[in-house]
Amino acid sequence: MNHPQPPETAPEPLAPGQRLPESDVKEFSPEALAEIQAIMARYPDKMAATLPALHIAQREFGFISLAAMKAVAKAIGIPEGHVFGVATFYTMYQKAPVGQYHFQVCTNISCALKGAAQLLEKVCEKTGVKPGQGPSPDGLWSVEEVECLAGCSMGPCIQVNHDVYDELVDEQKLIEVMEACKRGDYRPWAH
Amino acid sequence: MVAIRTKPDPQIYTYPGFGSEKFPNLMLRGAGDLDNWHLKVYEQKHEGYVAMKKALQMEPVAVTEEMKASGLRGRGGAGFPAGLKWSFMPKDTPERKFTRYLVCNGDEGEPGTFKDRVILEYNPHQLIEGMIIGGWAMQCQLGFVYIRGEFLWLIEKLEAAIQQARDAGYLGKNILGTGWDYDIIVHRGAGAYICGEETALLNSLEGRRGEPRVKPPFPAAKGAFGQPTTINNVETLAAVPPILRMGGAEYAKIGSPKNSGTRIFGVSGHVKRPGIYELPMGTPLNFLVEELAGGTGTGRKIKAIIPGGSSCPMLDEKDFDVPMDFDNLKARGSMGGSGGVIVMDESVCIVQATLRLIKFYAHESCGQCTPCREGCNWMEMILYRIEHGEGRMEDLDLLAGLTPRIGLRTLCPLGDAACGPMDSALQKFRHEFEHHITHKTCYAQGSRLLSSVGAH
To answer: Which of B12, B348, B390 sits opposite A113 (nearest CB)?
Structure first.
């Protein structure tokens, strides 16, 4: 019997010969390296700087490319394989480019009860991109379906880049948020 | 650029009678006021750092004893007595000196739970004060606050608050002349629900993948960076200053027997006034949902309530009078969990709701243990085909047979957490699953909890 299968929850694994998307930036800036050094000094063990360094890499490189992972491993002095394992474990490290304004829509139960599924469809319709499909042609928008954002009583809620959430989002509010993005009221993705 | 929230959030933090003797206001003081995170405001308005100064005059062991007397149970979900947990930390002996750490778990990721966010937003100094008292009681060298990565603006706010505390001499070298050095580091997570499990959190803090460790050794013996560590929830640590202020015995009088104190309940879903309510433990669920949150407000009846975050088995109508504390909820076959109350009315299709929840666990399983990694995916696939009208009656037995093969067979409780909603939905709302299989549509017509563009 041919049953319907749920959609893949992770992006398709790499095909043979296919490479990870490459970033334009290849190395950390001296300021970022100094920042990572300062973080390493705070912890009892230098490996603890892996997560913060990957956050810095995401800011510097735009997303976590292979070059970003290698740069993090070199900066901290740990194996590249370890950094690869960590970067691919956590969902907040984007392994492919995202738009200038990355919309994260929570569709978990509390938000779903308030219409998050319809909101996600609305966001896709307005921005013209689908979750996990990379940025829109103008590079402005990308959409991601995320799990609980802890805004449950004020659902549906979305997070644009790293900023404060927008709560109780309906169609009108969504248009306002997109206008605010175009005006530059939100912190850009790579700030 | 430091982002301090300037946009008020549209959430309810109070109710008539809040702050009176019957409903003490211990953790949500000043919630809703965006200036409340300043040290000055906290000290002037909310008896800030009074408890810390009192604790630093006491012997560390006496502080732990005070915690034991309060009967405070951990607010992260398991409900383990916090004072007892503190007393597990090894003490220095003439032969051996220990490096001890205190870790605060702010990885709030449980669907339906949003309490830690409120404390971090409006009362970060109470958390810092609790961490200083905990650090003193266990004579820790360093404290870590692990906060989920999405809360970047709260991390920046907490770091600003910690700097204020450093400037005031409450953190750093030789705190208030006691000769004790202590500081707090904020660690940002990167989006993994599993890091809310204490040993997974420690791995994540050390810069590894967030995979739970085998216990024993327990963190009190071998925790962060191989040293003795205690991990407490944000809410647990925020409850420490009021306990020290009023005294453990006095605090123990609040709430129900063996479940002392107040708890922050977050009500979400189909209610008129969703929001955050701090109530004494043991307050009946229907008082919270009907009186405070105003019921559904649409004339539709409530079908099911998840009483403590998505991992807790659902309750149906006959259990809506349950007193909200760890023991009573357990007696009714559910859990106290993390205090997130999710209310679902008649318009909700339970199959869709269960599928959405199981999809979450299938996505968040770390992949270490086969029962959880494979089992959650199987449950998702079976529910998906039932939802899409291709289910068979045998699927229900298959689902019922899967949960005992996942629960209690994994390193951490994530597998058990997925079984909670699955089992309870199947037991209490079996007719909805059967309706789905025979009629190929929802029992509750028009329920749309799943998007057509899905996929992560």
So the answer is: B348
Q: Express as a percent the part of chain B with pLDDT over 70.
A: 99
Are the beta carbons of B225 and A6 separated by less than 8 Å? no
**What pLDDT is attached to residue B455?**
45
Per-residue tokens: B199: 């040993």
Cβ B108 vs Cβ B149: under 8 Å: no
The count of residues in chain A is: 191
pLDDT tens per residue across span B187-231 = 999 999 999 999 999 999 999 999 999 999 999 999 999 999 999
Q: Is B191's CB within 8 Å of A90's CB?
A: yes
Chain A, chain B: beta-carbon pairs less than 8 Å apart: 219
Tell me the CA end-to-end span of chain A in Å, nearest whole number. Answer: 50
pLDDT of residue B93: 93
pLDDT at position B34: 87
Q: DSSP letter at A128?
A: -
Question: Chain A, 129-158: which have a CB under 8 Å from a chain B CB?
Answer: 130-132, 144-155
Chain B closest CA to A170's CA: distance in Å? 14
DSSP assignments along B37-55, one per residue: TSHHHHHHHS-TTHHHHHH
Chain B residues in contact with A154 by the CB 8 A cut-off are 9-11, 274
| Interface contact B111-A51, CB threshold 8 A | no
pLDDT of residue B1: 53
Kindly write down the DSSP assignment for every residue of B240-266, as one continuous string.
HHHHHHH-HHHHHTSEETTEESEEEEE
Tokens of B386: 């039932």
Whose CA is closest to B139, among B82, B95, B97, B167? B97
Query: b/e map of B241-263 (b: 16 or more CB within 10 Å)?
Result: bbbbbbebeebbebbbeebbbbb
Q: Could you give the CA distance from residue B345 to residue B347 in angstroms, rounded to a whole number?
A: 6
Q: What's B441's DSSP letter? A: S
User: Whose CA is closest to B350, among B450, B454, B443?
Assistant: B443
Q: Indicate whether B456 pLDDT > 50.
A: no
In tens, the pLDDT along A62-99 reads 999 999 999 999 999 999 999 999 999 999 999 999 99
pLDDT at A129 > cutoff 90: yes
Nearest to B151 by CA among A185, A112, A150, A88: A150
Report the distance separating Cα B178 and Cα B165, nearest Å.
16
ipTM above 0.90, yes or no: yes
Beta bridge partner(s), residue B315: B305
Of the candidates B346, B421, B413, the one whose C-alpha atom is nearest the C-alpha of residue B383 is B421
Q: What's the rounded Cα separation, in Å, for the pair B314 and B219?
A: 31
Q: Does A55 touch chain B (CB under 8 A)?
A: yes
Say what the pLDDT of residue A1 is.
Answer: 57
Q: For the full predicted model, state whether its pTM sits above 0.90.
A: yes
Q: How far is CA B168 from CA B38, B142, B165, B176, B241, in A?
A: 12, 18, 5, 10, 18
